[in-house]
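thread: overnight batch results

M.L. [08:02]
morning all. the overnight job finished for the chain we discussed friday. pasting input first so we're all looking at the same thing
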Amino acid sequence: MTPQISTVIFDVDDTLYDQIFPFRQALIDIFNHPFTTEEIERLYFLSRKYSDDVFEDEQSGKITTEDLQVYRITQSMKDIGQAISKTDALMFQARYLYYQHHITLIPEVEELLNFLTKKDVTLGILTNGNKEHQQMKITQLGVDRWISKNHQFISGALPFQKPDQAVFKHIENALNLNKDTTYYVGDAYINDVLGAKSADFHVVWFNQRNRAPEGDVLPDYTATTPEALLQYFKANIS
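M.L. [08:03]
and the structure it wrote out:
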């Protein structure tokens, strides 16, 4: 039987909004290449991988944010046989940022936020990334309508980041949560599933990209569509 759900903490990227939308549009605008849907999805996943590879170096100041941005798209394009210059990479990043300023909530996620609010469920955000950049996306999405500022946590403003269980413990203490009735919703297996589980949170893996798990730890539920994510909580909150 599903435990009582008192708190739901959300990731941001590819959880509250479709992260492929700004990525796809920037690719099409900048690069003179007839991308297939499969190539765009592959480039998206490669970009996430290469970003994760150097994320800690960027957070610690070993490399700049611009270095990370150039590296992830340059390496991703290289993997599909397309060599690009630093200038190309920076043009892509500028266009990517433009479209990130036009992101919107996934409709079913907006319905879920409304539903959880009506059920008096405590809501929060935990996202990795640069504080200003992630805050821009949170503001663009209008999340303040449901989640107060003091319930929004960005790793760039903290001494740790996902999947370190310390960041989940920080939220637990800051919000005085009961982890037995707290659920974390995110798209990344390592950062979100492994991270939240290491802190004994319940986890809903929003795996709409159908990625394979990278370990033996299982989420409490896997939602492969926005509809399934919405229905899971509607079915388990009276």
